[in-house]
Design a protein that fits this description.
Distance between the termini: 33 Å
Strand order of the largest sheet: 1-6-2-3-4-5
Number of domains: 1
Radius of gyration: 29 Å
CATH class: Mainly Beta
Helix content: 25-40%
CATH topology: SH3 type barrels
Number of helices: 3
Shape: rod-shaped
Length: 133
Amino acid sequence: MRTTAVGWLIATALSGAACHTLRPVTLQQVSIAKPSEVKVTRGDQSVVTVSGPQVLGDTLVGYVNGKFEELPGADLKQVRMMAPAKGRTTALIVATAVGVAGFAILLTGSGAPATGPMIDCTENAMQAGCPGY
C-alpha cells in the first residue's frame, strides 16, 4: 500500500507539466497574448527568459536576468511561450479517471473472501471458527 501512495504522489507531481507546453509564437502573438514570460532563442543559439515581454514595432523588450533589454526581432531565431496542451490535458483526465477507478476497485476488492456459512459465536463459543476454540 505504501508503494502505491508513493506512486500516486510522484504521478501527481509530474502531471502538472501535462497541461501546458512551450510552443513557438510570433512577436505579434506575444503582443496579443501578453504572457508573463517567454523563452527566446537568439541567433547565436543562446536561450534567455524574458520576463514581462512587450513588443514595440519589431523589437521584443523585457527583463533578462533582472536587466531591461531590447531584442530586435531580426536577431531572434525563435520565441516560445507557455500555452495549454489540449491533448496532454485530455490524456491526463482520462488517466486520472482510470487511476481513480482502479484504486476504487482495489479498495473494494481488498476484503477477505467469505468461506462457508456465518458462525454465531454468541450462542456456542465452543464451536470451530470461534475465538479461543
